[in-house]
Design a protein that fits this description.
Blueprint: H1 7-18, E1 21-27, E2 38-42, E3 46-52, H2 59-75, H3 82-99
Parallel strand pairs: 1-3
Antiparallel strand pairs: 2-3
Helix pairs in contact: 1-2, 2-3
The chain binds zinc ion.
Amino acid sequence: MIFKIKLQKLKTIVEKITSRKVNITYTTMFEQGDNRKAVVTFNNIEANIVINSSNIKSVEDIIDAVAHETAHIILGTNEHSKRFLAKWNELFAEIKSKYSYVKKIVV
Ligand SMILES: [Zn+2]
Protein backbone atom coordinates (compact mmCIF):
# COMPACT_ATOMS: atom_id res chain seq x y z
CA MET A 1 0.00 0.00 0.00
CA ILE A 2 1.14 3.52 -0.66
CA PHE A 3 0.65 6.53 1.54
CA LYS A 4 2.59 9.63 2.46
CA ILE A 5 3.39 10.35 6.07
CA LYS A 6 5.10 13.51 7.26
CA LEU A 7 7.03 12.17 10.25
CA GLN A 8 8.80 15.48 10.79
CA LYS A 9 5.44 17.21 11.14
CA LEU A 10 4.20 14.57 13.60
CA LYS A 11 7.44 14.93 15.58
CA THR A 12 6.93 18.70 15.90
CA ILE A 13 3.31 18.25 17.01
CA VAL A 14 4.21 15.64 19.64
CA GLU A 15 7.17 17.71 20.88
CA LYS A 16 4.82 20.64 21.56
CA ILE A 17 2.25 18.43 23.30
CA THR A 18 4.80 16.61 25.50
CA SER A 19 7.35 19.43 26.01
CA ARG A 20 10.14 17.00 25.19
CA LYS A 21 12.51 16.22 22.37
CA VAL A 22 10.82 13.43 20.42
CA ASN A 23 12.23 10.96 17.93
CA ILE A 24 9.89 8.96 15.73
CA THR A 25 11.23 5.89 13.93
CA TYR A 26 9.30 3.87 11.33
CA THR A 27 10.86 0.45 11.07
CA THR A 28 10.71 -3.20 9.96
CA MET A 29 12.80 -4.32 12.94
CA PHE A 30 9.93 -5.77 15.04
CA GLU A 31 9.69 -9.57 15.21
CA GLN A 32 7.28 -11.14 12.76
CA GLY A 33 3.90 -11.67 14.46
CA ASP A 34 4.41 -8.82 16.94
CA ASN A 35 0.94 -7.24 16.89
CA ARG A 36 1.98 -3.92 18.43
CA LYS A 37 1.69 -0.83 16.24
CA ALA A 38 4.38 1.03 18.18
CA VAL A 39 6.39 1.18 21.39
CA VAL A 40 7.73 4.11 23.39
CA THR A 41 10.51 4.90 25.85
CA PHE A 42 10.65 8.25 27.58
CA ASN A 43 11.96 10.35 30.43
CA ASN A 44 11.36 13.98 31.39
CA ILE A 45 13.57 15.30 28.61
CA GLU A 46 13.00 13.10 25.60
CA ALA A 47 10.90 10.33 24.09
CA ASN A 48 11.45 7.71 21.41
CA ILE A 49 8.44 6.39 19.54
CA VAL A 50 9.16 3.37 17.33
CA ILE A 51 6.45 2.42 14.83
CA ASN A 52 6.05 -1.17 13.58
CA SER A 53 5.65 -0.80 9.81
CA SER A 54 4.20 -4.36 9.57
CA ASN A 55 1.01 -3.31 11.39
CA ILE A 56 0.42 0.04 9.69
CA LYS A 57 -2.03 0.38 6.80
CA SER A 58 -2.68 4.11 6.65
CA VAL A 59 -1.69 7.55 7.86
CA GLU A 60 -4.55 7.32 10.35
CA ASP A 61 -3.00 4.11 11.77
CA ILE A 62 0.25 5.99 12.38
CA ILE A 63 -1.53 8.92 14.03
CA ASP A 64 -3.45 6.45 16.20
CA ALA A 65 -0.24 4.67 17.22
CA VAL A 66 1.54 7.96 17.91
CA ALA A 67 -1.44 9.24 19.95
CA HIS A 68 -1.37 6.01 21.99
CA GLU A 69 2.33 6.37 22.80
CA THR A 70 1.93 10.11 23.45
CA ALA A 71 -0.75 9.30 26.04
CA HIS A 72 1.80 7.06 27.82
CA ILE A 73 4.29 9.95 27.81
CA ILE A 74 1.77 12.53 29.09
CA LEU A 75 0.42 10.27 31.84
CA GLY A 76 3.89 8.90 32.68
CA THR A 77 2.65 5.32 32.84
CA ASN A 78 2.47 2.14 30.79
CA GLU A 79 -1.03 1.32 32.07
CA HIS A 80 -4.08 1.07 29.81
CA SER A 81 -6.58 2.40 32.34
CA LYS A 82 -9.87 4.21 31.56
CA ARG A 83 -8.01 7.46 32.12
CA PHE A 84 -5.42 6.33 29.58
CA LEU A 85 -8.08 5.43 26.98
CA ALA A 86 -9.71 8.84 27.38
CA LYS A 87 -6.34 10.60 26.96
CA TRP A 88 -5.53 8.45 23.90
CA ASN A 89 -8.87 9.43 22.28
CA GLU A 90 -8.33 13.08 23.09
CA LEU A 91 -4.78 13.07 21.69
CA PHE A 92 -5.85 11.22 18.53
CA ALA A 93 -8.33 14.01 17.76
CA GLU A 94 -5.82 16.73 18.65
CA ILE A 95 -2.89 15.29 16.68
CA LYS A 96 -5.11 14.46 13.68
CA SER A 97 -6.48 17.99 13.55
CA LYS A 98 -3.03 19.57 13.94
CA TYR A 99 -1.52 17.19 11.38
CA SER A 100 -4.04 18.13 8.72
CA TYR A 101 -4.12 21.82 9.63
CA VAL A 102 -3.47 24.07 6.69
CA LYS A 103 -2.63 27.69 7.36
CA LYS A 104 -4.99 30.01 5.57
CA ILE A 105 -3.36 32.98 3.93
CA VAL A 106 -5.49 36.08 3.93
CA VAL A 107 -4.53 38.81 1.50
ZN1 LIG B 1 0.17 1.14 25.36
